[in-house]
Structures are given as C-alpha cells and as structure tokens.
Design brief:
Residues 9-69 form the HTH tetR-type domain. This is TetR family transcriptional regulator. InterPro entries: Homeodomain-like_sf, HTH-type_TetR-like_transc_reg, HTH_TetR, Tet_transcr_reg_TetR-rel_C_sf. It comes from Amycolatopsis japonica. With 203 residues, this protein is mainly α. The chain folds into 2 domains: 8-52, Orthogonal Bundle (Arc Repressor Mutant, subunit A); 62-198, Tetracycline Repressor, domain 2 (Orthogonal Bundle), CATH 1.10.357.10. It has helices spanning 8-30, 33-40, 44-50, 54-71, 82-99, 101-109, 115-137, 150-173, 180-198. Helix 4 runs parallel beside helix 7 (115-137), helix 5 (82-99) crosses helix 6 (101-109) and helix 6 (101-109) packs across helix 8. The longest helix is centred in the C-terminal third of the chain and has 24 residues, at 150-173. The radius of gyration is 20 Å and the shape is elongated. The termini are far apart.
C-alpha cells in the first residue's frame, strides 16, 4: 500500500527540514543539492522543481528562520515599563537562539557570499529593524538631546539596537560558557542604560 501523497507545500516543508540538516552538517559552501534531495527522500529533479538553485533553497530556509525569530514577539505580554518592554524582547531573542542553533547560525554567524542569499538576509535585517522601531515607539518619552522627529529617532535607535544585538549574538556564538541570563542582562544594560550610565568617572 502506497503512502499518502504529499501536497506541494508539505513536500516543500520536508525539503526545508532536510536542507536545514545538510547545511548544519556541511555548511553552505560544501552542501550539495543531490545531498539535500537524498536527505529529503526525493529525486534531484523534484528538488529543482521547488528550488531552482542552492542559493534559492538556502534563502528559503533563511527566510523561514527569520519568520520563526520574529513570530515569538507577538505572544509576549505587555509591560508596565519601557525597560521591561525592551528586556522582554531581548530575552525572547536570546531564548530563541538557545533553542534554535540552526537559525542562530544562519542569521547571526554565517554570511554566505551569494547575492541572492545576501538580499534575503538584508530583508530579514530590515524586518528586525521595523519590529524594534515599534518597540521604541511604545516608549512614552525619550530624553534625547538630538532635535529629531520622534519617528526618525525611533528608527535610528532601532538600527543601533539591532547592530548591538547582532554583535552580541555573534560574540555569544563563540562564548557558549556564558549563561543566557547573563547575556540578556548585558545586552539590556547596553541598550537601556547606555554606555554613559555604565561608565563611572572619578569625582
């Protein structure tokens, strides 16, 4: 008796799951489409019917990882304070990394040179900036010395926060001995309190 015939979407999800395992084991450059097809239990022509190139396959997987990272934000409870709002988002990001090493590696620790993949990576980064801009927009007041419209300031601060998050996420990849709670605390200190408040000068 033959098994259930998969729909196109189900087969695509199976391919992405297999590709994730292959890319995780071999890295982008060393992974081959035939290897992915074998892992997915399909023929190479069927794989190419879904994804015309290795770059397109990797880009599809990367996009699904970005979706997964950002999806958790919608379920976060509201916070009574702006600091709590920011800390909850930072904690969610690093908790996702700790339980999703593949996505952590793809988004923060790998930079494939293929332009198609790079474009997907840029779109993911832009989506992250937009989400962080929304977070800064929920802060009722910002004591800024810069004379900027609030929406422009929110966007600039979000871009800076994203860069800091990216940098710490990349650093943590090589420093796994540091507990996640301490990484969250360090990141929140930097983003919320700022370097100026962290530096104690002799009086």
């Amino acid at each position: 008796m033959s098994g259930k015939r998969l729909s196109r979407e189900e087969r695509r999800e199976r391919i992405l799951a297999a590709a994730a395992r292959v890319f995780a084991a071999s890295g982008y450059d060393a992974a081959g489409m035939r290897e992915v097809a074998t892992a997915a239990g399909i023929s190479t022509p069927v794989l190419y019917d879904h994804f015309p190139s290795k770059a397109a396959l990797y880009a599809g997987l990367l996009e699904s990882e970005v979706d997964s990272l950002l999806a958790g934000w919608a379920d976060l409870p509201p916070s009574d304070t702006a600091e709590g709002l920011l800390r909850a988002r930072v904690a969610a990001i690093f908790a996702w990394m700790e339980t999703n090493e593949r996505g952590w590696r793809m988004i923060f620790a790998e930079t494939p040179s293929d332009e198609g993949v790079a474009e997907v990576h840029r779109r993911g980064q832009a989506r992250s900036t937009a989400r962080l801009t929304e977070v800064f927009g929920q802060v009722p007041g910002l004591a800024l010395t810069a004379d900027l419209p609030r929406d422009r300031a929110n966007e600039a601060l979000a871009e800076a926060a994203k860069s800091a998050l990216n940098a710490i996420a990349t650093w943590w990849w090589d420093n796994r001995d540091i507990p996640r709670e301490q990484v969250v605390a360090l990141t929140t200190d930097l983003l919320w309190r700022g370097l100026g408040n962290l530096i104690q000068e002799d009086r």
